[in-house]
Design brief:
It is a single chain. α3 links the parallel β4 and β5. This protein has one domain. The protein is globular, with a radius of gyration of 18 Å. With 197 residues, the chain is α/β, with parallel strands linked by helices. 33% of the residues lie in helices and 19% in strands. The strands form 2 sheets. Strands 4, 5, 6, 7, 8, 9 and 10 form a 7-stranded parallel beta sheet that branches. Strands 1-2-3 form a 3-stranded antiparallel beta sheet, with no helix packed on it.
């Protein structure tokens, strides 16, 4: 129940009291406790999204992970992945699991880019290698000034630099792009290396 502007989940996690946080908790609980029901609901929501896009004459794209890093290429509903259920739809996601970028069985309609982090030298080396191999990496800067510095640094290194705050359609970025965006919300206070100074 909401108390003093916060919401405590059934698992004991205290979050700001807002509908987005409560919806995330409900989806996580459904994924954990009733995965098939979650997948059927997701399938239905995708169908509704596609119909709505068609009515508005828009091209639909879908990002399945928001705050998670679920390997959707391994998740099946009725024996097929969502990419097989919807083969004409462009899916995309961010991931911290670099080996996913190199999986030759990854569906053609599922674009992945690597979430950068300066917290670990080995991971940083994997990000640099991913860029050399033509995969995009995405980095979060503390503020606008830091973002501009990082964009300029990428350009000076000869790496395609992309302002990640202009759009979220990572699959249209040039190969090997380094995408820089500004920290938002609670990420502004991160100190674990995810947000770059």
């Amino acid at each position: 129940m909401p108390v003093g502007g916060t919401f405590t989940s059934p698992g004991g996690i205290t979050l700001p009291d807002n509908t987005i946080q409560r919806a995330r908790i409900r989806r996580t609980q459904l994924w954990t406790n009733s995965k098939q029901e979650f997948l059927q609901l997701l399938h239905h929501e995708i169908e509704l999204h596609l119909r709505g896009a068609a009515r508005k004459k828009l091209t639909p794209t879908i990002r399945l992970n928001g705050t998670s890093d679920i390997q959707w290429e391994r998740v099946l509903l009725n024996g097929r992945t969502f990419f097989e259920h919807f083969p004409d739809v462009q899916f995309y996601d961010y991931t911290k699991i670099s080996k996913r970028l190199y999986d030759k069985t990854r569906p053609k309609n599922y674009y992945l880019c690597l979430s950068g982090s300066g917290a670990d030298a080995h991971y940083l080396a994997r990000c640099e290698q991913a860029e050399r191999d033509g995969h995009s990496t995405v980095w979060v800067a503390r503020d606008q000034a830091k973002k501009e510095i990082l964009l300029a640094h990428a350009r000076n290194q000869g790496v395609p630099a992309v302002d990640g705050d202009e759009h979220d359609l990572r699959f249209i970025d040039p190969p090997g792009a380094r995408v820089i965006l500004k920290a938002k919300g609670s990420a502004k206070k991160e100190t674990n290396g995810f947000v770059l100074n």
